[in-house]
Amino acid sequence: MRILTGLQPSGRLHVGNYFGAMKPAVDAQDEGDGYYFIADYHAMTTTHEASALRENVRGVAIDFLACGFDPSKAVFFKQSAVPAVNELAWILSTVCPMGLLERCHSYKDKIAKGFSANHALFAYPALMAADILLYDSNVVPVGEDQKQHLEVTRDLVGKINERYGDDTLVMPEARIRSATAKVPGLDGEKMSKSYNNTLPIFGEEKPVRKLIMKIQTDSAQVEDSKPTENSIILALYKLFASESDYAQMVTDHENGGYGYGDFKKRLADAYWDYFAPMRLKRTELAADPTQVDAILATGAEKARDEAAIVLDRVRKAVGLI
Ligand code: ADP
Ligand code: TRP
């Protein structure tokens, strides 16, 4: 089984990204033949400064490697290292009705947010389909927001195979991560960089502790019992703490005798310890950019070899060769 997913480099990653996207992808490495790439062509639709793009791509590569991507298990590469993806995107475009792209929420949302309607933003799902199909992917783990793009991909496979033969492209399947897996932000809303309520994965200790101390709580006194439902502190603590420590904090809420300051301190300690090994690895990687470049170069080579096989098959099927 080939598992593929693309990761858009979008600045500093937060705890919501980690539990919602990175950890599931890292866990999936052991399930099959993994292909993971940084979607830098896609990022160009919204990042228009060369230095910012370069920096974000490097940052996200380091973050993912630090968080457990293992280049000995999976192929890890930059999308633009395999330019053949553009040729497949073109081939897919020839069967892609305008209406299919016009209906895509991601495009409509970007336009509603004031982005100008350029061709890349419009054609984004066709390039994403090419990303998936260029490696004969079977399973594509993505967030709920990408579901429609997977449907577009499946539609395009249907059209190509109908026109050129059933063996031209492999039909992929989306694996949608549960929509309920929403990590709350410091204000209780969904953690998101657009809401300014995030806990960074790789923050400095003091500022992160300060952020945690600012979580809003009620006015219960130390001796009072405290509500466990809809508690931001408990929801976040559950992600970082052992089961027994979590159960202890629930009991301490119920019985009273501990203040919110104490709970927040436990949360900050658990957060800090949880990411400690990853932080160490990140420091190591950041200090040795050549190691990261070498990992991406090895991944690119494997990805290019695989892509060449698939593209050759498609070129033959459509009559280019
Ligand atoms: P943001 O909302 O901060 O802009 P993105 O849209 O860039 O985050 O999300 C990148 C990935 O992280 C997506 O796969 C998304 O599903 C996941 N993700 C983002 N925020 C959360 C969250 N609060 N809980 C769970 N998953 C999340
Ligand atoms: N569009 C995806 C996102 O924003 C990233 C992406 C690009 C992708 N190509 C892909 C995801 C192929 C899965 C498969 O999250």
What would you note in describing this structure?
- The longest helix is centred in the last third of the chain and has 30 residues, at 289-318.
- Helix 3 (50-66) packs across helix 13 and helix 4 runs parallel beside helix 14 (289-318).
- The model has no long low-confidence stretch (mean pLDDT 95).
- The chain contains 14 helices and five strands.
- Strand 4, helix 8 and strand 5 form a beta-alpha-beta unit.
- It folds into two domains: 2-183 and 289-318, HUPs (Rossmann fold); 203-274, Tyrosyl-Transfer RNA Synthetase.
- The relative contact order is 0.14.
- The strands form two sheets. Strands 1-2-3 form a three-stranded parallel sheet. A two-stranded parallel ribbon has the order 4-5.
- By secondary structure, the protein is mainly alpha-helical.
- The radius of gyration is 22 Å and the shape is elongated.
- Residues 4-6, 8, 39, 42, 128, 131-132, 140, 142, 146 line the site of tryptophan (TRP).
Show the helix and strand layout.
Layout: E1 2-7, H1 15-28, E2 33-38, H2 40-43, H3 50-66, E3 74-78, H4 84-93, H5 98-102, H6 105-112, H7 119-133, E4 139-142, H8 147-164, E5 173-176, H9 205-213, H10 232-240, H11 243-255, H12 260-274, H13 276-286, H14 289-318
Parallel strand pairs: 1-2, 2-3, 4-5
Helix pairs in contact: 3-13, 4-7, 4-14, 7-8, 9-12, 10-12
Adenosine-5'-diphosphate (ADP) binds at residues 10, 16-17, 19-21, 143, 181-183, 190-194.
